[in-house]
Design goal:
five-stranded antiparallel beta sheet; globular; alpha+beta; about 270 residues; four-stranded antiparallel beta sheet
């Protein structure tokens, strides 16, 4: 069932999502060679709780009922999504790390992700990140009342595939509100004019998951971590938005992150 949000509810969601953006900025301050993903997770969880919210990822069950152990998903290089933070995973020069963060505050969820460069990253990989981020915003441009979900997916797919990248099919964006994952599913591929009609008050998380090589993926034995089969890098950017009659209202924000990154922002 799809739940449309009132203006008051959307403002509560904005607060949760802006906190995600600020938590990602705290993470951005730390990212460099030699830092563990476990450290990123500790800092983010403390920041989220200090601001009166709960990290929604922590304890969230997978398909087997196993609870996610971290407050962030930290996916390094060929990990597409749902990487588990660990003191044993040390970031190295040339890595990229997707940091996905969720909060629950005032009865509503926030969800956003940003892929960071660690030290000096190859220009071809930076392009993958740029194209993925561009695709996110192209998807958002099509998230308008009266259009359909397929218009969002088509825009993302066309931009990424025209750059010879793979578009992951098995994991998609989602509705969001009082629950982190609500209807409808929001694929990063599709046909124009097809799919669920977009209505004012619909809140969705759009999150392109794009691979440098082909789109084939597999899940690690931990039941969480998703990797590319060809072990080539992947990128992941995510915003939570609300549908309007005009252009979409982006409830999350990369501004806090990009203030930290300065001229190193993608």
């Amino acid at each position: 069932m799809i739940f449309l949000k009132t203006e008051d509810e959307i403002e509560l969601m904005r607060q949760s999502n802006l906190l995600v953006g600020k938590a990602l900025a705290e993470v951005a301050k730390l990212i460099k060679p030699g830092v563990s993903t476990g450290e990123l997770d500790r800092v983010a969880e403390e920041f989220i709780r200090d601001n009166g919210a709960i990290p929604t990822f922590k304890g969230y069950p997978n398909q087997y009922g196993d609870p996610f152990p971290g407050s962030l998903c930290t996916s390094v290089n060929d990990q597409v999504v749902h990487g588990i933070p660990s003191n044993k995973v040390i970031l190295k020069d040339g890595d990229v790390v997707s940091v996905d963060c969720g909060t629950y505050m005032n009865g509503f969820c926030g969800d956003s992700a940003y892929t960071f460069c660690v030290g000096e990253v190859d220009e071809s990989i930076k392009k993958l990140l740029r194209v993925t981020k561009e695709a996110l915003y192209l998807g958002i441009e099509n998230a308008v009342q009266g259009k359909r979900l397929g218009d969002i997916g088509y825009a993302i797919q066309q931009h990424c595939e025209s750059n010879s990248y793979g578009v992951v099919r098995e994991f998609v964006g989602h509705g969001i509100g009082k629950e982190m994952h609500e209807d409808p599913q929001v694929p990063n591929y599709g046909k124009r004019g097809y799919g669920t009609l977009l209505k004012k008050g619909l809140c969705i998380a759009i999150e392109p998951m794009i691979t440098f090589g082909n789109r084939q993926i597999f899940m690690e034995n931990d039941g969480w971590t998703v990797r590319t089969k060809d072990r080539k890098y992947a990128a992941h950017f995510e915003h939570t938005i609300a549908i309007n009659a005009g252009k979409a209202d982006i409830l999350s924000s990369f501004e806090f992150v990009e203030e930290v990154l300065g001229d190193k922002a993608i």
